[in-house]
């Protein structure tokens, strides 16, 4: 169990001073931002001992000082993937203290977090995504509902639950130094194509074997466009990513022809 934080000697003196001036326990608590129970205990202890000093605390005293704890945390944040063992080695090398600081003590001073997983993106892709976001930031809800969102997804039958721990500050969850990059890779699983618009889903198609441009062209004809017309209506906005089979001459030409016929509008992605 963690130790309870004690009131400072200055606050204990202030409590007794205000009490001697005739203030109530509740008023002292509000003035000093201390709970009424802590105020009452401080007054009771002063009556019994006549002293403002700390009682001797049970258990083993702390090995590290507040400054050493801060040094351990700062060292860890400079390299968020630093393990407790590595932090112990750094502290032993750089600390001016002659006392032995164990690996467990270093670990207790740190707070590990599981690294978030995000797709590995090149700088150019990050810039393109930012441009896209700025172009669409003023869109209304009705405009977003007119988009048919589509993609293929592979559901792995076997996967890894391996966690990577990092130590980070507040607001650094998606910082590149605190991420575990992920990429789509092989493995046993089921591949499907699906779509949705607004709060309604369209067709879900199970893909057999390897999906090429001809298979995707068939999906556009039999599932994408019928789903768009059913969920949104004529001139719906069609979204797809820049997968090579999506941007093949066959599929691109087909979508461009449908766009000129007023069937759909293609979203730049």
From TrEMBL:
<dbReference type="Pfam" id="PF13384">
    <property type="entry name" value="HTH_23"/>
</dbReference>
<feature type="compositionally biased region" description="Basic and acidic residues">
    <location>
        <begin position="45"/>
        <end position="56"/>
    </location>
</feature>
<dbReference type="InterPro" id="IPR036388">
    <property type="entry name" value="WH-like_DNA-bd_sf"/>
</dbReference>
<dbReference type="InterPro" id="IPR052338">
    <property type="entry name" value="Transposase_5"/>
</dbReference>
<dbReference type="GO" id="GO:0003676">
    <property type="term" value="F:nucleic acid binding"/>
</dbReference>
<dbReference type="InterPro" id="IPR036397">
    <property type="entry name" value="RNaseH_sf"/>
</dbReference>
<feature type="region of interest" description="Disordered">
    <location>
        <begin position="45"/>
        <end position="65"/>
    </location>
</feature>
<dbReference type="InterPro" id="IPR009057">
    <property type="entry name" value="Homeodomain-like_sf"/>
</dbReference>
<protein>
    <recommendedName>
        <fullName>Transposase Tc1-like domain-containing protein</fullName>
    </recommendedName>
</protein>
């Amino acid at each position: 169990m963690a130790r309870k934080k004690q009131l400072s000697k200055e606050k204990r003196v202030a409590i007794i001073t205000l009490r001697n001036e005739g203030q109530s326990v509740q008023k002292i608590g509000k003035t000093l931002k201390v709970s009424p129970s802590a105020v009452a205990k401080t007054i009771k202890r002063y009556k019994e001992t006549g002293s403002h000093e700390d009682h001797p605390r049970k258990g083993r005293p702390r090995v590290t000082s507040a400054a050493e704890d801060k040094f351990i945390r700062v060292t860890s944040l400079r390299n968020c993937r630093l393990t407790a063992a590595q932090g112990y080695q750094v502290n032993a090398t750089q600390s001016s203290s002659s006392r032995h600081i164990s690996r467990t003590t270093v670990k207790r001073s740190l707070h590990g977090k599981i690294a978030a997983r995000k797709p590995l993106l090149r700088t150019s892709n990050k810039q393109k995504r930012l441009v896209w976001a700025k172009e669409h930031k003023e869109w209304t809800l009705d405009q977003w509902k007119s988009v048919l969102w589509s993609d293929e997804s592979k559901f792995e039958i076997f996967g890894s639950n391996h966690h990577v721990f990092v130590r980070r500050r507040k607001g650094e969850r998606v910082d590149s130094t605190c991420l575990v990059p992920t990429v789509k890779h092989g493995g046993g699983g089921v591949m499907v194509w699906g779509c949705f618009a607004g709060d309604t889903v369209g067709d879900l198609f199970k893909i057999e074997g390897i999906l090429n441009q001809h298979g995707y062209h068939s999906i556009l004809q039999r599932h994408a466009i019928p789903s768009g017309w059913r969920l949104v209506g004529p001139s719906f906005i069609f979204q797809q990513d820049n997968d090579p089979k999506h941007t093949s001459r066959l599929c691109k030409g087909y979508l461009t022809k449908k766009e000129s016929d007023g069937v759909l509008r293609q979203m730049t992605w």
